[in-house]
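Subject: Predicted fold for GTP cyclohydrolase II, 354 residues

User T.R. writes:
Posting the sequence so we have a shared reference for the thread.
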Amino acid sequence: MKLALDNWCTLPTPIGDFRMYDTGLEEVSVISMGDIQAVGSKPLFRVHSSCKASEVFGALDCDCADQLREAMKLMAIEGSGLIVYQHQEGRGHGLSLKIKAVKAMEHDGLDTAEAFEKLGLEQDKRSYPEAVAVLQQLGINEVRLVSNNPRKAAFLNTHGIQTSGVNTHPNIRPENANYLQTKNAKLGHQLPLDDQLQSESPIHFYHSDQPWGEFSNFSKHAVFLNGKIWPTVEHYYQAQKFSDPMHQEQIRCCLTPMKAKTAAYELSDQYGRTDWVNVREQIMLQALEAKFEQHPDLANKLMSSGDRQLVEFTEKDDFWGDSGDGSGQNRLGQLLMQVRAEIRQQSIHTKALV
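User M.O. replies:
I've generated the structure tokens; pasting them so everyone works from the same file.
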């Protein structure tokens, strides 16, 4: 397989604009954030196997679509990255046998590993020579592999591609909780599940469609401020970087929070407020207070966090977030805990008046 590097089209998505390249094979797709020839010597990289159930029809009983979406978000934030998407349903056995395995899980109470064993199937027969070929064509011999599956890393390592791991963070739901646990316990995956299940550990949040994602500025909860409805906190925050109402409105009308952030970044040097560093925290606090006041369900979710520390978990912003080692200021987490304390105090005051 060989990429046609001059035959690509833009792939506009809610996450950002990617490029899709011609592989010459219907069963293999390649997309990149930015120019594929400029992703760098150690890019973010995911080799992803198709899952029609979750990616097309929205099935909730796995984490396939969640992982693909998270990988794309990581690449959009960094501004570069590469995904090789392969049609390998059912861990390489095809859609027909996958349906039989899921049927066995539903009717016989089996987990995913037991269902494959009952059908006499190898647990994971996938291979990734096309991914290796793409990387070799681009002259890349080292990647940051976005995956929880050590088999993928082992395949790439065996074929001359060095890997370092970047975990994805599954959204645990009633429909997929047992499946995720089985992937770790029986298939050797390394999903970071324990942190989400511990009641005393810090709450790490970042992506809006992952656990505790309601705390993200990208969560789809509009706020009413300054006489206008802002689609998300991120829209409002980014728009306040400008004094000119025209620029504020341009940001407010962006289709997604990611596009609002990108648009503000592009405008800031020329039109941004000179006092922004001094006022940004107060503006963020104003938006957060409105979000949790105007959405009582979110206030309940925030209060359900008890006294746990809230941390925006990211390596990309050491002012608003923290990478987990304490080096970041985690100001967004601090402001959320301030809002939590305000709601708690208000509740105490209200009860005292009754």
